[in-house]
Design a protein that fits this description.
The protein is an alpha/beta fold. Helices cover 41% and strands 16% of the residues. The protein has eleven helices and twelve strands. Strand 2 (78-84), helix 4 and strand 3 (108-112) form a beta-alpha-beta unit. It is globular and about 70 Å long. The model is unreliable at 185-189 (pLDDT under 50).
Length: 355
């Protein structure tokens, strides 16, 4: 029998833990988000010292909070590198440059590497292989960016030795990094890193869950639209295409994803949903009819889920009218898609992402 009092769906689980920790063990609940920030700032300063660091900023909450935390610790010694790998959602790059930089005054370098990533992913269908390729290419881009940063600074003998990542505890657990844990899927920033990594990793969020990271972000003044946005995987839309990734399939998925996000916001239910991955089954086609003609198009899968920490999740009971609007718009407006289906699987047994 397995019993997990720490997950949200375990009835009275939180109370069981509180009773043991406070009433039986006699501990005081002194652990706070402000305390986490102070502790990590000290640890970051001790690790980096006078060195230089770069941060892989994706625009998601994890990397944004990690960047804000490290900047508080070392200031101008940090340069954020935003890699446009071509697997982003619509408007993602513009939001990072506009909102995050304006709020934090962080130094940001933007690298357009879309062609590089797509070339490396060409013909690859295995999800683990995709994650490892994306992780490898990220590191190679960061290495070049680090060399460019030092060259621009004109610092004789200086080098960028530290790479900041927004790794969370669920990433570690699912990649088999916890005690007694199975490798469910390698995250690109944990199991997908190359063996010849030239950087020392700085991961100030490695022991935190997503809900805790959001609270740290609020304390640090990270823009609300980033702190509370729907989580987006580091490999981006590359792992939301079941099948090989190419520019054409990305355009299809990006359009469907934009419609789903817009309609969830319009219906006022976007805050009720933890995340809504939109998945393209690229190697699957089904017969449909549009107008008076036959179509043979791809299915799109909607995966709305509710969760607290991403370790467990349940599918979100969205209003039928909202689902109908999303389905109608996608099948009418996105070429080559003639069917929309709803994933109603909890986690476990299914993961939130399909790949």
């Amino acid at each position: 029998m397995q019993f997990h009092p720490e997950v949200v769906h375990s009835q009275f689980g939180q109370r069981i833990l509180e009773r043991f920790l406070y009433d039986i063990a006699g501990l005081d609940p002194t652990w706070t988000m402000a305390g986490v920030i102070d502790e990590q700032v000290a640890a970051i300063r001790a690790q980096i010292g006078d060195g230089l660091a770069i941060c892989g900023l994706s625009g998601g909450v994890d990397s944004a909070v990690a960047a804000a935390l490290v900047q508080r610790a070392i200031g101008k010694q940090l340069t954020c590198v935003f890699v446009d790998h071509g697997l982003l959602r619509e408007g993602e790059a513009e939001q990072v440059e506009r909102d995050f930089v304006a709020a934090t005054d962080v130094r940001l370098v933007v690298v357009d590497a879309a062609d590089r990533f797509l070339a490396a992913l060409a013909g690859v269908t295995d999800p683990e292989a995709k994650r490892k390729i994306i992780g490898r290419e990220f590191i190679r881009v960061f290495e070049q960016a680090a060399r460019d940063i030092v060259q621009e600074a004109g610092s004789s003998g200086a080098s960028v030795e530290f790479l900041v990542q927004g790794t969370l505890y669920p990433d570690v657990v699912e990649s088999g990094g916890g005690s007694g844990t199975a490798n469910i899927k390698s995250h690109h920033n944990v199991g997908g890193l190359p063996d010849d990594l030239d950087f020392a990793l700085v991961e100030p969020l490695r022991t935190l869950f997503k809900d805790e990271v959001r609270h740290v972000g609020v304390e640090l003044g990270v823009p609300a639209e980033i702190v509370w946005r729907h989580p987006f995987p580091g490999p981006g839309l590359g792992i939301r295409i079941v099948g090989a990734v190419d520019a054409h399939r990305l355009r299809i998925l990006r359009a469907a994803d934009a419609i789903a996000r817009a309609e969830l916001t319009a219906a006022g239910v976007d805050r009720e949903v933890w995340q809504c991955p939109v998945v393209l089954l690229a190697d699957v086609r089904s017969v449909g009819v549009q107008g008076d003609g036959r179509t043979y198009g791809h299915p799109i899968v909607l995966r709305p889920v509710s969760s607290e920490d991403a370790m467990t999740a349940d599918w979100s009971r969205l209003p039928y009218d909202t689902l109908a609007t999303i389905s109608t718009r996608i099948t009418n407006e996105v070429p080559e898609v003639n069917r929309v289906v709803l994933d109603i699987t909890s986690k476990p047994p299914g993961t939130i992402e399909w790949e």
